[in-house]
# Entry
Amino acid sequence: MSSEIAKASQPVSQDMVVLENVTKEFKTGKKTFAAVDDVSLTIKRGEIFAIIGYSGAGKSTLVRLINGLETTTSGTLTVDGRTISGQRESALREARHNIGMIFQQFNLMNSRTVASNVEFPLKVAGWDKAKRRARVQEMLEFVGLADKAKSYPDQLSGGQKQRVGIARALATSPSLLLADESTSALDPETTSEVLSLLKKVNAELGITVVVITHEMDVVSSIADRVAVMEKGRVVELGNVYDVFSAPQTEVAQRFVATTVKQAPSKDEAAELKARHRGYLVNIEITEGNQGIGKVLSYLGNRGVQFNIVQGGLETLQGKSYGNLTLELIGEVTSVDAVIAELGTVTRVKEVRS
Ligand SMILES: Nc1ncnc2c1ncn2[C@@H]1O[C@H](COP(=O)(O)OP(=O)(O)OP(=O)(O)O)[C@@H](O)[C@H]1O
# Structure
């Protein structure tokens, strides 16, 4: 059997990146510090996966472990079935042909033309000249910059530079693209242009995309799943809608608060209480709790009036999430009964000042 046939008959694993108990420690003086602390995570083939966290959470270190630029202190890490952890530099170089990377500051060579920047990894990989030329042309067309082949990076806008970065990263046909804060240096309009291109990379070329960011908007507009990192650990992981609609950890709640107004803070609660004499509760809205409308429509029959006094709603993946603060007015026993009933269809919190 030829090796090609043997390769084709092997089932392709659905796991693109697998980390098992991966830790990366740095030593500064006598102190040891875990920048990545016992992370286990599987990124599936073909998905767009986001890693979000505040500065210092360990995101960049995690990405550098995935492409073998940092060595793991312990744990195992594989990319597309190849072991990365514990490998020699020569094996890592080979593995990196299968991993593209784009950066916040684009990292283009300013003394070379756009075409020469995109060609560079092909030269390193030993492609002959005719094949390189054809591939550069193909990649520049894919990112919509065929007319800029002879321009220099300094003559391009930030968004165009990042598109060159993407063309260069994809030139050698990797199966994985790592995007480390790839839109953080861009304005909102250019950001959405670059994110659309990353979606196209994923949808049309089938490339798995890992996006590192500290911006929740980037996660909501592009990712299928998200991991939230804090102090080197993955503290929350799930489908983007599930994490946005019901964040479990304080850090995830802080990120979600940047996209939709959260339940009133203590100060806001005091201010709401001063203006409203009824009983104030905050209810969570998700696509799963469609019974809320039914309960609210019965309130009049239960002798309870309600006003919506605050709230925030957003739509993600075609589904709503957010929360509403309600003022309930009526006899204490009736209000209590209504709160209990709401509690059967959604999460209800008393608004306390
Ligand atoms: N080479 C190194 N030596 C010592 N400490 C390091 C090294 N690289 C990273 N760290 C530390 O590890 C922690 C995580 O850094 P990392 O850059 O991975 O975080 P991050 O989430 O990507 O943050 P940022 O967005 O600011 O880059 C930080 O406290 C950082 O100072």
Notes: The CA atoms of residues 56 and 235 lie 14 Å apart. The first strand starts at residue 15 and ends at 28.
